[in-house]
Structures are given as structure tokens and as C-alpha cells.
Amino acid sequence: LIGVYTIIYHFRVERKDAMRIRMYSLVRSVTGAGEMEVPAGTPREALKWLADRYGEEFHAMIYDPAHGLRPGVQLLCRGRNVSAAGQMDTPLDPGETLDLFSGIEGG
What we know:
Blueprint: H1 2-13, E1 18-23, H2 25-31, E2 35-39, H3 43-62, E3 63-64, E4 68-69, E5 74-77, E6 80-81, E7 97-101
Parallel strand pairs: 1-7
Antiparallel strand pairs: 1-2, 3-4, 5-6, 5-7
Helix pairs in contact: 2-3
């Protein structure tokens, strides 16, 4: 059993196409998690994976049918808003961390 856990753990951590995504506020309420590993190589793939996994509620929160991402949705990588910078298809380094904020955050 320990050997199986070790193999699974190492596979999970060393996936070449995996990144971490941290979710805040309303996004977290839909996913039930504040952070998870996502099998994706680009920001767009990460959001698609999350939308496929969490369904219509997540999709409606993040996407606008006419414009792609909803206004105000921010996907940050190292403090840079990759969604606003037109870098949704830019390959990211394995193990990179993205921060996802929905467009309805308050202050």
C-alpha cells in the first residue's frame, strides 16, 4: 500500500502538464476548494478543465457567451493578469500557479 501511494503521489506531483490553481470567493463556493492541481498546460485549458468538471454554475460565472470571459474575471500568473494580456494560450511552466477571481468580488 505504501508503494502504491508513493507511485501515485510522484505521478501527481511530476505531471508535465499540471499546474495549480487557487480560487477565491464565489469561485471557491462553486468548486468547494481553495486550491487544486489542474491537468492543463495553458490558462485556457485550465479554465476549460474546471468548467467541464464543475458544470453550468462555474461556466456561467466565468464565461460570457458573447465575449469569452466575463468582464472582471481575472486569471493571474505571478501577479500578471494573463486573461487581460491576451495570454490565455501561452504555455506555462509545470507546477505554475494561477489565481482565479470571479468578476463579482466585493470590497
